[in-house]
Amino acid sequence: MAIATESQEEHQISSESTAAERLRWTLNDFDIGKPLGRGKFGHVYLAREKRSNHLVALKVLFKSQLKQSQVEHQLRREVEIQSHLRHPNILRLYGYFYDQKRVYLILEYAAKGELYRELQKSKYFNERRAATYVASLARALIYCHGKHVIHRDIKPENLLVGAQGELKIADFGWSVHTFNRRRTMCGTLDYLPPEMVESVEHDANVDIWSLGVLCYEFLYGVPPFEAKEHSDTYKRIIQVDLKFPPKPIVSSVAKDLISQMLVKDSSKRLPLHKLLEHPWIVQYADPSGVYKG
Ligand SMILES: Nc1ncnc2c1ncn2[C@@H]1O[C@H](COP(=O)(O)OP(=O)(O)OP(=O)(O)O)[C@@H](O)[C@H]1O
């Protein structure tokens, strides 16, 4: 059973809602379980919604820290965007509530945790696993772009894994609703495309670049433009200094796909629906969308 109906969620994020509606959820609605992790602004706990018995992840953020770092606006945007997205590969945000000191986000529980840890454990993924993940992310991004949402911060740290092994895009902190082209500089340098590094206008095709970087990192264990100095990463991105090391051995069809995504001219990057038809995806991605090992 879902823990909130769509109309309840919409009431909670609507700016016109009354105080009573916005405070529909309270901490008393949840049994709090083990800590799942901690982030910059607070902690995440496993929790059970008492009425439905539904397991969720409760993210507890301290208002004082949000204020100090001036990210309240970013959080509001994250909540508004993420709570309206419904896709099997996007982490659900069911709702939120707050008290005097804290803001609580009620999130879908991703039982297998961070993809980043999995990647660290195995150093790099085999092609079946990488292709299955890339295909599921492409489908999630097609869905987002169809709703005029660009994520802008696709990287292993922002991906969680559900109980069945399905990938879940989390952390919409840098995402935007885009009816206008954006010029804002944001995100970690390694995953940024040339047009964002150079602060020129950018559009939804930034996510194709980041997915190309991620695909490379899945297969090689390191992002493609990594360098010791920030300024060298910057140069390598601008020049699209893409090199494929001899080890681990990666098929040429995978390299072909990466080369078609990491293209400086954003309009020439392989569109996501074409990516799903690329021979590497067709040959290696599990059609179920879940990597079964
Ligand atoms: N929905 C979830 N399901 C399972 N584990 C989660 C969930 N959300 C967060 N976690 C765990 O809690 C940790 C902290 O999450 P959180 O989103 O607060 O921080 P972060 O993304 O690491 O950092 P930041 O503060 O920069 O957003 C994550 O790294 C993850 O291990």
In words, what does this structure look like?
The chain has 293 residues and is α+β, with helices and mostly antiparallel strands. It folds into 2 domains: 83 residues, Phosphorylase Kinase, domain 1 (2-Layer Sandwich); 172 residues, Orthogonal Bundle (Transferase(Phosphotransferase), domain 1), CATH 1.10.510.10. Helices cover 36% and strands 16% of the residues. It contains 12 helices and 9 strands. The protein has a 5-stranded antiparallel sheet. A two-stranded antiparallel ribbon has the order 6-9. Helix 8 runs antiparallel to helix 10. The longest helix has 20 residues. The N terminus is likely disordered. The protein binds adenosine-5'-triphosphate. Adenosine-5'-triphosphate (ATP) binds next to strand 1, strand 3 and strand 5.
Structural category is alpha+beta
Total individual domains? 2
CATH architecture of the largest domain: Orthogonal Bundle
Kindly report the spatial arrangement of strands forming the biggest sheet. Answer: 1-2-3-5-4
The run of helices and strands is HHEEEHHEEHHEEEEHHHHHH
Strand percent estimate: 15-25%
Terminal Cα span: 29 Å
Mean residue pLDDT: 87
By CATH, the topology of the largest domain is Transferase(Phosphotransferase), domain 1
Q: Radius of gyration, rounded?
A: 19 Å
What about the largest sheet?
5 strands, antiparallel
Shape: globular
**What ranges have pLDDT less than 50 throughout 5 or more consecutive residues?**
1-22, 179-183
Query: Ligands in the structure?
Result: adenosine-5'-triphosphate
Helix content: 25-40%
Q: Please tally the β strands and state the result.
A: 9
CATH class of the largest domain: Mainly Alpha
Please give the count of helices. 12
CATH superfamily of the largest domain: Transferase(Phosphotransferase) domain 1
GO molecular function: ATP binding; histone H3S10 kinase activity
Subcellular location: Cytoplasm, Cytoskeleton, Spindle pole; Nucleus membrane
Enzyme class: transferase
Keywords: ATP-binding, Cytoplasm, Cytoskeleton, Kinase, Membrane, Nucleotide-binding, Nucleus, Phosphoprotein, Serine/threonine-protein kinase, Transferase
